[in-house]
Amino acid sequence: YFLRQYTKHINPIADTFAYCLLPNHFHLLVKIKTVEAIQRHQRKPLKKPSQYFSNFFNAYARAFNNAFQRTGSLFERPFGRIPVTSDAYFVQLVIYIHRNPQKHGLIDDYRAWPYSSYHTLFSNKPTPMQRDAVLEWFGGIRDVESLHQAGVDEALLEPLILEDFD
Predict the structure, then answer these.
(1) Cβ atoms of residues 112 and 56 within 8 Å
(2) CA distances from 55 to 10, 65, 115 (A)
(3) CA distance 101 to 33
(4) What's the rounded Cα separation, in Å, for the pair 162 and 130?
(5) Using one digit for the tens of pLDDT, what is the confidence trace for 40-81?
(6) Distance CA 98, CA 138 (A)
(7) What is d(CA 21, CA 39) in angstroms, rounded to the nearest whole number?
(8) What is the pTM of this model?
């Protein structure tokens, strides 16, 4: 349900390059589309990107609360964002996002986690994700696999990540 709501609210305004859903948080790697690209596909007045994300979080929280007969906020911390400023950072961030379930001890092998975009990179199924762009940044599917297995360059990422590196 999370990804359906995400597709409905965020895909019209952003390109998605990676995601990972975990029990208590999630990671998204997105690029906000140009105003012109957004307006081509939308008849409504343009809002700030943060408003689209707010609408997404609220819609998901309402549906989740209804489904599980609960009330209140689902998200402990406010939504955070950090700009991606280099190709090297982009590649490392994709790896970090996909390896996150293993980092948190939720699974022994990140490749077995079903709630990330990792498997989308190896599939030919249609996807709203920007698979071809990610593969191009990595230099091809073989490099996706080998660089993911090599792990994250923590020295590059640590100052730029919103969560702790323990």
Answers:
(1) no
(2) 9, 15, 22
(3) 28
(4) 23
(5) 877 776 788 888 888 888 888 888 888 888 888 777 666 778
(6) 14
(7) 29
(8) 0.85
